[in-house]
């Protein structure tokens, strides 16, 4: 197996490893450094590739590599295990290798100096280096910018996951805060990193004090929870970059006073989620202890808004009996448990042999809050002539609509939330990053506390009439635009039991259709 690692401060060291056999240690006295012996010599193919051989009898060998900057400064660049290993060193410089042997008597360490006379840039010809910097032919490096017209170019999520589960930025969502015009240049030569912030930087509120202490500046825009735009001049002379590997994950690491454009804290380590020639997606832990995400594209394409391919506007039949007849495809959202073709538990109000069973599960967080059943259509709905949906539904009488999920387990903007005795049909635009703003919703509550009506425990047919629904299609909070005037809906969502809670519930649905 061969892997490549390099050091910032020495410009680069690429370490490779081919592990061979391991001898079982012999019983004996504790070894000393004088007992540790090994040889090293350039390979016949390349003087920059060194082979190290453990010659200490009865031992297990562990190797560590360091780049030597000066008499007092060096940096660890990697480690290997095995009696025979090889390590390619790309650039000229001084290095140090240590061998630690382990025997039944104990362990001991010895070291040797390595001098690499000439640079071999062919050893830097790796996919990661080439994608990030443009390769050895790109003398001035490669310039990246935030891909601001791509959803989730900024993101937020819990540290336990690898995706921005809590927030995915909309296209061009924060154009005034200073990071969309930042230019990040990564150069293979000297592993130089440069950030041209064009005079201002976007700073997370939780990281403001750190930023001011490290870089100074003046607040130009205070956008509250969205962050600060801070005017500051940067000196990037000593800024360097590296790609390292830990526990099977790759990281982009920064040195000196470097930071990565949008400042969320003093982190120097960014996990590489994706690195291609046209996309760089990173994750780091911010000053607030949360995971923050960065999406970049090369400068030539980052500011180009991709064309929107619009679906045709059509009037078509839509139906699904959730058993054996359908012309659309519903899928579950989050941890909803849905069964197609479940035996009908009550044929007195619905003679269908099989129906759909909709089960809300007791899941925490996003997996529990938004348990919907949804379908994206290959066309946009023309609601001007056909705008009434119907569906049969059965609520189990045993469902609990009074016990609330505590506020600590609901979204921050909610308090205690119980499961709702309602069914809602939502129409949304799949291309709108804030689809909740422009959606059309029609709902029905099977329990009316004011009249004492309770329709649980029986099949009822619910009508969702969008002729009477107004929407916030203008996104001005006026809810003045009739749903039937909107021509962008291509997504249907069935939500039973409300949202924002983790309470369980079981429901049955049948015969969903768009009326003539």
Automatic annotation (TrEMBL):
This is PKD domain-containing protein. Residues 1-21 form the signal peptide. It comes from Flammeovirga kamogawensis. Keywords: Signal.
């Amino acid at each position: 197996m061969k892997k490549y690692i390099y050091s910032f401060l020495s410009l680069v060291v690429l370490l490779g490893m081919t592990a061979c056999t391991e001898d079982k240690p012999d019983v004996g006295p504790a070894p000393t450094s004088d007992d540790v012996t090994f040889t090293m010599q350039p390979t016949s193919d390349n003087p920059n590739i060194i082979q190290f051989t453990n010659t200490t009898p009865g031992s297990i060998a562990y190797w560590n590599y360091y780049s030597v900057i000066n008499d007092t400064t060096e940096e660890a660049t990697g480690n290997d295990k095995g009696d025979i290993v090889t390590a390619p060193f790309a650039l000229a410089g001084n290095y140090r290798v240590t061998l630690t042997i382990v025997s039944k008597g104990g362990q001991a360490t010895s070291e040797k100096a390595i001098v690499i006379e000439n640079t071999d840039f062919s050893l830097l010809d790796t996919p990661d280096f080439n994608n990030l910097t443009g390769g050895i032919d790109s003398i001035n490096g490669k310039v990246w910018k935030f891909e601001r017209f791509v959803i989730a170019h900024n993101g937020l999520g819990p540290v336990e996951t690898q995706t921005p589960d809590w927030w995915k930025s909309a296209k061009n969502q924060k154009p005034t805060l200073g990071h969309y015009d930042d230019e990040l240049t990564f150069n293979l030569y000297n592993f130089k990193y440069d950030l041209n912030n064009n005079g201002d930087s976007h700073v997370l509120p939780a990281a403001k004090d750190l930023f001011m202490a490290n870089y100074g500046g003046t607040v130009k825009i205070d956008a509250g929870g969205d962050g600060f735009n801070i005017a500051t001049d940067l000196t990037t002379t000593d800024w360097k970059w590296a790609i390292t590997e830990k526990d099977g994950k790759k990281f982009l690491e920064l040195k000196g006073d470097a930071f990565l454009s949008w400042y969320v804290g003093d982190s120097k380590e960014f996990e590489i989620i994706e690195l291609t020639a046209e996309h760089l997606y990173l994750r780091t832990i911010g000053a607030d202890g949360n995971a923050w995400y960065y999406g970049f594209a090369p400068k030539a394409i980052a500011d180009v808004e991709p064309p929107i391919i619009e679906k045709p506007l059509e009037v078509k039949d839509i139906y699904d009996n959730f058993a054996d007849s359908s012309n659309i495809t519903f899928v579950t959202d989050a941890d909803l448990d849905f069964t197609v073709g479940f035996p009908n538990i009550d044929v007195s109000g619905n003679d269908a042999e099989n129906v759909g069973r909709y089960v809300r599960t007791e899941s925490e967080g996003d997996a529990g809050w938004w348990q919907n059943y949804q379908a994206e259509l290959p066309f946009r709905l023309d609601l001007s002539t056909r705008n009434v949906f119907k569906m049969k539904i059965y609520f189990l009488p045993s469902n609990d609509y009074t016990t609330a999920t505590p506020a600590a387990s609901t979204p921050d903007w909610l308090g205690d939330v119980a499961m709702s005795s309602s069914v809602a049909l939502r129409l949304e635009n799949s291309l709108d990053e804030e689809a909740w703003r422009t959606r059309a919703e029609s709902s029905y509550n099977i329990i009316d506390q004011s009249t004492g009506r309770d329709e649980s425990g029986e099949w009822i047919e619910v009508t969702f009439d969008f002729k009477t629904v107004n929407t916030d299609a203008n996104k001005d909070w006026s809810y003045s635009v009739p749903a039937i005037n909107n021509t962008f809906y291509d997504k249907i969502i069935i939500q039973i039991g409300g949202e924002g809670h983790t309470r369980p519930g079981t429901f049955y649905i049948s015969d969903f259709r768009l009326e003539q």
